[in-house]
Write a structure and sequence with these properties.
Blueprint (H helix, E strand, L loop, with lengths): L3 E5 L3 H13 L3 E5 L2 H10 L4 E5 L7 H10 L8 E5 L4 H9 L4 E4 L4 H27 L5 H5 L11 E5 L3 H10 L5 E5 L2 H10 L4 E5 L7 H10 L8 E5 L4 H10 L3 E4 L4 H33 L9 H18 L3 E8 L2 H26 L6 E6 L2 E7 L3 H17 L2 E3 L4 E3 L3 E7 L7 H17 L5 E4 L2
Parallel strand pairs: 1-2, 1-3, 3-4, 4-5, 6-7, 6-8, 8-9, 9-10, 16-17
Antiparallel strand pairs: 11-13, 11-16, 12-13, 14-15
Helix pairs in contact: 2-3, 4-11, 5-11, 8-9, 9-10
Amino acid sequence: MTARILVVDDIPANVRLLEVRLLAEYFEVLTASNGLDAIETCENGKVDVVLLDVMMPDIDGFEVCKRLKSDPATSHIPVVMITALDQVSDRVRGLEAGADDFLTKPVNDLQLMTRVKSLVRLKSLTDELRLRASTTRNIGIEALLSRSFTSEDATPKVLLIDERKSSFERIQKMLRGSAELDIATDPHAGFFQAAEAPYECVLISTGFADFDPLRLCSQLRSLDRTRFLPIILLAEEGEEGRIIRGLELGINDYLMRPIDQQELMARLRTQVRRKRYNDQLRASVTQTIEMAVTDGLTGLHNRRYLDSHLQTLFDRAVARRRPLSVMITDLDRFKTVNDAHGHDGGDDVLREFARRLRKNVRGIDLACRFGGEEFVVVMPDTDGAVAEKVAERIRAEIAQLPFTIGQEGKTIEVTVSVGVSSVLNGADTVAALMKRADVALYEAKSGGRNRVVAKAA
């Protein structure tokens, strides 16, 4: 695992000490001796983690962290505050400034490396999601990420898996009022519970009598639904080897017993905040992809999706020697609707036609707006005769039931012409299939409209 780590400290000996430790683990190390230089480095360079000393001249570490986290361009960079201050109030102040983690001097090598590696792994995930979000959007990524979300202050839903009553009751008391905590005393049941409920973090105790807690961590990481669920391991003194193995398996953080309440809450808050941030990125990517392949007016798939998916359906039908049919529909004399009732009226007709079309096809059928007033339906496992009957049913419903347009509720008559074609045995192609359906549609329109024509060849 390689990454670029920025070490910020005004004392050269402290910088050198951390630099040697990080270089030994093959990290690339950048350094800064004051807060302003640190901010500039983060703004101008690719920094994966910041190790930030608290006590510095000019502006201290708290202020530096606050500025980094308030800037959308640098807010995603993990910040670990390193301080000689060991008061709970100092930790709380650092977390309020936005710090992702904190270490107390003198820094323990195990804690330093495990924290850095864990944050580097999370930063890599965030970077990938940011890249996807920026790739799939025309707007700037900073504008997207700078928005505030109403869920930020929502009480997190947390699962604790711990078989010892004295232990889980103590943690339950610590988190009362700050988290919605569920408890599972059986690790097998806890695994299924974590997979089925929308938890934002899971706490796993290492104190099981007859079960390896790392197996549970591994199972959670192997399941799609819990792959990105934050895991915090609650370990005993002397379990450094188990902690290292857990971090290699993908746990996000750990706490050593006896557990400090403020530290538990702080680390839980950090994991939940980062999960919500990444969940928002994933949702943005998913929404953008859906927008890219969906017609905004009718809610059907658009031509872009048809062009990419029809070939897949065609190849599958040919490989399995199963029938596949296509229908192309065109609303008759649609221009007169727009001329007489405006584009708003035309939009009402298109939306209602799409609704009726969707109602008359199966879930496995692919209904798309091809462009303008043309629509295409791809019907897997459907031969030409059945497809022609479906097309006739759609045509009849469109002709029989008037369309309502405008706020006044005015109704107008609408008809549709349909061309149908099916995959032929032998050398057939998607282009030929669509061409036959298009020719059939042309014949339906030139033959008087409001009719179905099927092309077998």
